[in-house]
Design brief:
Blueprint (H helix, E strand, L loop, with lengths): L3 H30 L2 H20 L7 H18 L6 H6 L9 H19 L3 H12 L4 H8 L3 H19 L3
Helix pairs in contact: 1-2, 1-3, 2-3, 5-8, 6-8, 7-8
Amino acid sequence: MITLKQKNVLRALLTLAHKDYAKGLNTRAFFKVHDKTIGEDIVQDTFLKTWSYLLKGGKIVLMKSFLYHILNNLIIDEYRKHKTSSLDALMEKGFDAPAEDQSKRMFDIIDGKTAIILIARLPHIYQRVMTLKYMKGLSIKEISTITGQTKNTVAVQAHRGLEILKTLYNPS
Protein backbone atom coordinates (compact mmCIF):
# COMPACT_ATOMS: atom_id res chain seq x y z
CA MET A 1 0.00 0.00 0.00
CA ILE A 2 1.09 3.53 -0.66
CA THR A 3 1.73 5.91 2.22
CA LEU A 4 0.31 9.40 2.56
CA LYS A 5 3.74 10.95 2.00
CA GLN A 6 4.24 8.93 -1.21
CA LYS A 7 0.76 9.88 -2.33
CA ASN A 8 1.56 13.58 -1.86
CA VAL A 9 4.79 13.18 -3.83
CA LEU A 10 2.89 11.48 -6.65
CA ARG A 11 0.21 14.18 -6.56
CA ALA A 12 2.88 16.89 -6.86
CA LEU A 13 4.53 14.97 -9.71
CA LEU A 14 1.26 14.63 -11.60
CA THR A 15 0.32 18.27 -10.94
CA LEU A 16 3.65 19.38 -12.36
CA ALA A 17 3.15 17.09 -15.38
CA HIS A 18 -0.33 18.56 -15.90
CA LYS A 19 1.07 22.08 -15.76
CA ASP A 20 3.87 21.23 -18.22
CA TYR A 21 2.10 18.97 -20.73
CA ALA A 22 -1.66 19.64 -20.61
CA LYS A 23 -1.61 22.28 -23.34
CA GLY A 24 0.35 20.08 -25.75
CA LEU A 25 -1.82 17.06 -24.97
CA ASN A 26 -4.99 19.11 -25.57
CA THR A 27 -3.63 20.37 -28.88
CA ARG A 28 -2.76 16.86 -30.06
CA ALA A 29 -6.13 15.48 -28.95
CA PHE A 30 -8.01 18.30 -30.69
CA PHE A 31 -6.19 17.74 -33.98
CA LYS A 32 -6.86 14.02 -33.82
CA VAL A 33 -10.57 14.02 -32.85
CA HIS A 34 -11.57 17.45 -34.27
CA ASP A 35 -13.72 18.26 -31.25
CA LYS A 36 -12.48 20.44 -28.41
CA THR A 37 -14.67 18.99 -25.65
CA ILE A 38 -13.96 15.38 -26.59
CA GLY A 39 -10.26 16.22 -26.81
CA GLU A 40 -10.30 17.77 -23.33
CA ASP A 41 -12.15 14.74 -21.96
CA ILE A 42 -9.56 12.43 -23.45
CA VAL A 43 -6.73 14.45 -21.89
CA GLN A 44 -8.45 14.32 -18.49
CA ASP A 45 -8.84 10.56 -18.89
CA THR A 46 -5.13 10.41 -19.70
CA PHE A 47 -4.26 12.03 -16.39
CA LEU A 48 -6.77 9.85 -14.51
CA LYS A 49 -5.26 6.69 -15.98
CA THR A 50 -1.78 7.94 -15.14
CA TRP A 51 -2.88 8.67 -11.57
CA SER A 52 -4.37 5.22 -11.12
CA TYR A 53 -1.20 3.66 -12.59
CA LEU A 54 0.94 5.59 -10.14
CA LEU A 55 -1.27 4.60 -7.20
CA LYS A 56 -0.90 0.95 -8.15
CA GLY A 57 2.86 1.34 -7.79
CA GLY A 58 3.74 1.76 -11.45
CA LYS A 59 7.04 3.37 -12.35
CA ILE A 60 7.26 6.03 -15.04
CA VAL A 61 10.67 6.75 -16.54
CA LEU A 62 9.69 9.63 -18.84
CA MET A 63 6.43 11.32 -17.91
CA LYS A 64 5.95 13.10 -21.25
CA SER A 65 6.28 9.96 -23.37
CA PHE A 66 4.08 8.01 -20.95
CA LEU A 67 1.32 10.65 -21.14
CA TYR A 68 1.43 10.80 -24.94
CA HIS A 69 1.35 7.00 -25.12
CA ILE A 70 -1.79 6.90 -22.94
CA LEU A 71 -3.32 9.77 -24.93
CA ASN A 72 -2.72 8.02 -28.26
CA ASN A 73 -4.34 4.83 -26.97
CA LEU A 74 -7.38 6.78 -25.75
CA ILE A 75 -7.66 8.55 -29.11
CA ILE A 76 -7.64 5.16 -30.84
CA ASP A 77 -10.35 3.97 -28.45
CA GLU A 78 -12.39 7.08 -29.31
CA TYR A 79 -12.10 6.33 -33.03
CA ARG A 80 -13.23 2.76 -32.47
CA LYS A 81 -16.34 3.76 -30.55
CA HIS A 82 -19.56 3.16 -32.43
CA LYS A 83 -21.10 6.53 -33.15
CA THR A 84 -24.87 6.67 -32.84
CA SER A 85 -27.15 9.46 -33.90
CA SER A 86 -30.60 10.04 -32.58
CA LEU A 87 -33.47 10.13 -35.03
CA ASP A 88 -34.36 13.66 -33.90
CA ALA A 89 -30.84 14.90 -34.65
CA LEU A 90 -30.93 13.28 -38.08
CA MET A 91 -34.32 14.81 -38.85
CA GLU A 92 -33.04 18.27 -37.84
CA LYS A 93 -30.25 17.89 -40.38
CA GLY A 94 -32.81 17.18 -43.09
CA PHE A 95 -32.78 13.39 -43.18
CA ASP A 96 -36.21 11.93 -43.77
CA ALA A 97 -36.89 8.26 -43.29
CA PRO A 98 -38.15 6.81 -46.56
CA ALA A 99 -41.86 6.21 -46.52
CA GLU A 100 -43.11 2.82 -47.61
CA ASP A 101 -43.94 3.10 -51.27
CA GLN A 102 -46.49 0.42 -52.04
CA SER A 103 -46.29 0.95 -55.80
CA LYS A 104 -42.52 0.33 -55.79
CA ARG A 105 -43.02 -2.79 -53.70
CA MET A 106 -45.65 -4.00 -56.15
CA PHE A 107 -43.31 -3.41 -59.10
CA ASP A 108 -40.59 -5.39 -57.29
CA ILE A 109 -43.01 -8.30 -56.83
CA ILE A 110 -44.04 -8.15 -60.48
CA ASP A 111 -40.38 -7.97 -61.58
CA GLY A 112 -39.60 -10.99 -59.40
CA LYS A 113 -42.43 -12.99 -60.95
CA THR A 114 -41.29 -11.92 -64.40
CA ALA A 115 -37.75 -13.06 -63.60
CA ILE A 116 -39.05 -16.48 -62.51
CA ILE A 117 -40.96 -16.83 -65.79
CA LEU A 118 -37.93 -15.72 -67.80
CA ILE A 119 -35.63 -18.17 -65.99
CA ALA A 120 -37.91 -20.95 -67.23
CA ARG A 121 -37.29 -19.72 -70.81
CA LEU A 122 -33.49 -19.97 -70.47
CA PRO A 123 -31.53 -22.84 -72.01
CA HIS A 124 -31.46 -25.81 -69.60
CA ILE A 125 -27.72 -25.43 -68.90
CA TYR A 126 -28.36 -22.00 -67.32
CA GLN A 127 -31.78 -22.68 -65.76
CA ARG A 128 -30.50 -24.83 -62.91
CA VAL A 129 -27.66 -22.48 -61.96
CA MET A 130 -29.90 -19.40 -62.13
CA THR A 131 -32.60 -21.09 -60.06
CA LEU A 132 -30.13 -22.17 -57.39
CA LYS A 133 -28.35 -18.82 -57.29
CA TYR A 134 -31.17 -16.31 -57.50
CA MET A 135 -34.25 -18.17 -56.30
CA LYS A 136 -32.68 -20.37 -53.63
CA GLY A 137 -29.97 -17.85 -52.70
CA LEU A 138 -27.06 -20.32 -52.81
CA SER A 139 -23.45 -19.28 -53.30
CA ILE A 140 -21.30 -20.29 -56.26
CA LYS A 141 -19.40 -22.73 -54.03
CA GLU A 142 -22.62 -24.38 -52.83
CA ILE A 143 -23.94 -24.64 -56.38
CA SER A 144 -20.68 -26.21 -57.57
CA THR A 145 -20.95 -28.80 -54.80
CA ILE A 146 -24.54 -29.62 -55.76
CA THR A 147 -23.95 -29.78 -59.51
CA GLY A 148 -20.50 -31.36 -59.39
CA GLN A 149 -19.06 -28.62 -61.60
CA THR A 150 -16.12 -26.37 -60.82
CA LYS A 151 -16.75 -22.98 -59.23
CA ASN A 152 -15.43 -21.28 -62.35
CA THR A 153 -17.88 -23.14 -64.58
CA VAL A 154 -20.79 -22.27 -62.29
CA ALA A 155 -19.74 -18.60 -62.18
CA VAL A 156 -19.51 -18.45 -65.99
CA GLN A 157 -22.93 -20.10 -66.36
CA ALA A 158 -24.46 -17.67 -63.84
CA HIS A 159 -22.95 -14.71 -65.68
CA ARG A 160 -24.07 -15.90 -69.10
CA GLY A 161 -27.52 -16.77 -67.77
CA LEU A 162 -27.84 -13.29 -66.31
CA GLU A 163 -26.84 -11.73 -69.64
CA ILE A 164 -29.49 -13.79 -71.44
CA LEU A 165 -32.07 -12.79 -68.80
CA LYS A 166 -31.25 -9.14 -69.40
CA THR A 167 -31.83 -9.51 -73.12
CA LEU A 168 -35.09 -11.40 -72.54
CA TYR A 169 -36.30 -8.72 -70.11
CA ASN A 170 -35.33 -5.79 -72.33
CA PRO A 171 -35.31 -7.07 -75.92
CA SER A 172 -34.19 -3.70 -77.33
